[in-house]
Design brief:
Helix 3 (about 35-45) packs across helix 12, helix 11 (about 230-245) crosses helix 12 (about 265-280) and helix 12 (about 265-280) packs across helix 13. The chain has helices at about 5-15, 20-30, 35-45, 60-70, 85-90, 125-130, 130-135, 170-175, 190-200, 215-225, 230-245, 265-280, 290-300, 305-310, 315-325, and strands at about 50-55, 75-80, 90-95, 100-105, 115-120, 140, 145-150, 155-160, 180-185, 260, 305. The protein has 15 helices and eleven strands. It folds into two domains: about 20-210, P-loop containing nucleotide triphosphate hydrolases (Rossmann fold, 3-Layer(aba) Sandwich); about 215-325, Magnesium chelatase subunit I, C-Terminal domain (Helicase, Ruva Protein, domain 3), CATH 1.10.8.80. The protein is of the alpha/beta class and about 325 residues long. A five-stranded parallel sheet has the order 2-5-8-1-9. Strands 3-4 form a two-stranded antiparallel sheet. The mean pLDDT is about 85.
């Protein structure tokens, strides 16, 4: 059996990704700008990877997730995290039924395809940790039984910067389970003018579901088949290795700034996200630019900085940029 030609592969990817433009157009009815955030959400959706979204209040983080959920034919639940939230408020709890003489399970809002964990770092660590099993295993254990979550299952979590009052740092084990971390900045002047004109009218746009579960499943399967050349694979592995052993890559000066480098989960997510990035550009193969474009989103929350880095005001993004500049591309 002959291998399909490049033109055939490109045509197949173009067909499987045909839903992207209508989806972006539908989201654009409610969200102005925020292209990087929207792309991060799409990559997470295609890879079944959770996304952490950080930014000050009022930057359309929640609105963007809501718009994505409304444009998909999937179940959606929003959980507002607060300091008095309990783990059972997320995952549910067994409740004793006197008439039947047995425990019945009341499932929590986490049992949905897309879960918006709004201001996730407003709740203490015990509540944040309640999501760990759901995010990693795709199931929730209540009492002696484990209950599978819907497929796909995606946690899109927003958080305020840690210097804001009433916020708690997420446990490192939970942060590592987020495939991507998107940083949301202020809109441009032109975008803000459009936002004011659109929102001040007081009419909320009506969004329709434009992507079916079948289309999404086909796209997800197609992403996994995209070709990752060994040279590109080795390049992304070098990027991760440079975060652990900077000296090997001529980055001796940043070694004191990193307490712990990127975990192997980071390598896996970087490869998956690079494939999804190529898919969104209608390519059946991954190029180094895909890795470079997605690297900050995958690596920034996996680099644990030292006290020296904090004291010097050096961010994880600064270090990722230096690693990208130092490691040679194939």
């Amino acid at each position: 059996m002959s291998q399909p030609s490049l033109a055939q592969l490109e045509a197949e990817i173009a067909e499987k990704s045909a839903f992207v433009e209508p989806l972006l157009a539908e989201i654009g009815k409610a969200v102005v700008g925020q292209q990087e955030l929207i792309e991060a959400l799409l990559i997470g959706l295609l890879c079944h990877g959770h996304v952490l979204i950080e930014g000050v209040p009022g930057l359309a983080k929640t609105r963007s997730v809501n718009a994505l959920a409304r444009a998909l034919d999937l179940s959606f639940r929003r959980i507002q995290f607060t300091p008095d939230l309990l783990p059972a408020d997320l995952v549910g709890t067994p409740i004793f039924h006197p008439a039947k003489g047995e425990f019945l399970v009341r499932k929590g809002p986490v049992f949905a395809h897309i879960v918006l964990a709004d201001e996730i770092n407003r709740a203490p660590a015990k509540v944040q940790s309640a999501l760990l099993e759901a995010m990693e295993e795709g199931q929730v254990t209540l009492g002696e039984e484990s209950y599978p979550l819907p497929e796909p299952f995606l946690v899109l979590a927003t958080q305020n910067p840690l210097e804001h009052e009433g916020t708690y740092p997420l446990p490192e084990a939970q942060v590592d389970r987020f495939m991507l971390k998107a940083i949301v900045g202020y809109p441009s002047r032109a975008e803000e003018e459009q936002i004011v004109d659109q929102i001040s009218g007081g009419v909320e746009p009506t969004l329709n579901a434009v992507v079916s579960p079948t289309e999404l499943a086909a796209a997800t399967a197609a992403v996994r088949t995209l070709y990752l050349d060994p040279k590109v694979r080795n390049y992304l592995l070098d990027l991760v290795a440079a975060s652990r052993e900077p000296e090997r890559f001529g980055l001796k000066e940043i070694a004191p700034l990193i307490s712990h480098g990127v975990s192997p989960r980071g390598s896996i997510f970087l490869a998956r996200a690079a494939r999804a990035h190529a898919f969104l550009r209608r390519r059946p193969y991954v190029v180094p630019d895909d890795v470079v474009s997605i690297a900050p989103l995958v690596l920034r929350h996996r680099l644990l900085l030292s006290y020296e880095a904090d004291a010097r005001g050096i961010t994880a993004d600064d270090l990722v940029a230096r690693i990208l500049a130092a490691v040679p591309r194939p």
